Amino acid sequence: MRRLHNLDLNLLKALHALLEERNVTRAAARLSLTQPAVSGMLARLRQYFDDPLLVRTAQGMMPTSRAEALAEPLARIIGQIETLVQPLEFSPAELEAEFKIGTTDNSFRTVGIPFAAQLQSLAPHTRVAFFKLRREEMEEKLAKGRLDAAIAAHPAAPDNLRHKKLYHEHFICALREHHPVLQQEWTLDTFCRQTFALGSFYGGSFSGAIDRELAKLGRSRRVALSVQNFALIPELLRQSDLLAVVPSRLVQPGNRLATLPLPFPSAGYDKLLLWHERTHFDPVQQWMRGVLEGAVQREAT
């Protein structure tokens, strides 16, 4: 068995940074150390684990199988140590911290903006960075500390992450004010005769959940425009005769848009706040999640 006294905490922190950054220069900047110092630490780590850990390839430095096996337990250990040295009580007004939140552009409008405003009011020395959320990367980034929390719809949420329901969302049909269809009887037939814009999470798709609901009814609609940025949809609708089925919270007061209910049943979805087990007991992270949840509740009232 290898002796732990040959492996200090600074080496573990360096390994954690190296495995996440996969670049000695970036890891050194993250650790506030010089590049030669981190190179020396990597050499000691290689000797201790008897493994190269990171190898140079055409795509840059890549982790070995041994390093990949170390990555998740190491991230968990670093998170637990950071929690251990946190004061049991802290003053939000004096807190200096940076939070990293993964979200979609739609969730940023409905959750991120009120959260950022509330955070600056309660803890003016904190910073928050929002990242575009990719569902297939969510669990890994939360596990490795690249994200502190994520906001996602229930079907996209991995089962093994901690989560809490923020709100239930339902779909509505949005269109410009004074659209001719507003003078017609609003039925399923009327809906299916219209031309639609669609928000595509990955881009390029002309069908989605609503089209699957229509297919169950033996119906379909025409989607003429697909955009990856959901935030563009209100402006597109204002300047055209297109309609769009959108989450209800996307249409804000003053958007100069009209709304209609869907003329067929649609279940909607729950919007969740997700985080990893490694930050579950961290008092600062717990406080941050409470602020986010409270901001959403205040926005809904």
UniProtKB/TrEMBL annotation:
Residues 7-64 form the HTH lysR-type domain. The keyword DNA-binding applies. Gene3D superfamilies: Periplasmic binding protein-like II, Winged helix-like DNA-binding domain superfamily/Winged helix DNA-binding domain. One of its GO terms (molecular function) is DNA-binding transcription factor activity. The keyword Transmembrane helix does not apply. Signal peptide: none annotated. Pfam families: HTH_1, LysR_substrate. Keywords: DNA-binding, Transcription, Transcription regulation. It comes from the Bacteria. InterPro entries: LysR-type_TF (IPR050389), LysR_HTH_N (IPR000847), LysR_subst-bd (IPR005119), WH-like_DNA-bd_sf (IPR036388), WH_DNA-bd_sf (IPR036390). PANTHER family: HTH-TYPE TRANSCRIPTIONAL REGULATOR LEUO-RELATED (PTHR30118), TRANSCRIPTIONAL REGULATORY PROTEIN (PTHR30118:SF15). Belongs to the LysR transcriptional regulatory family. This is Transcriptional regulator.
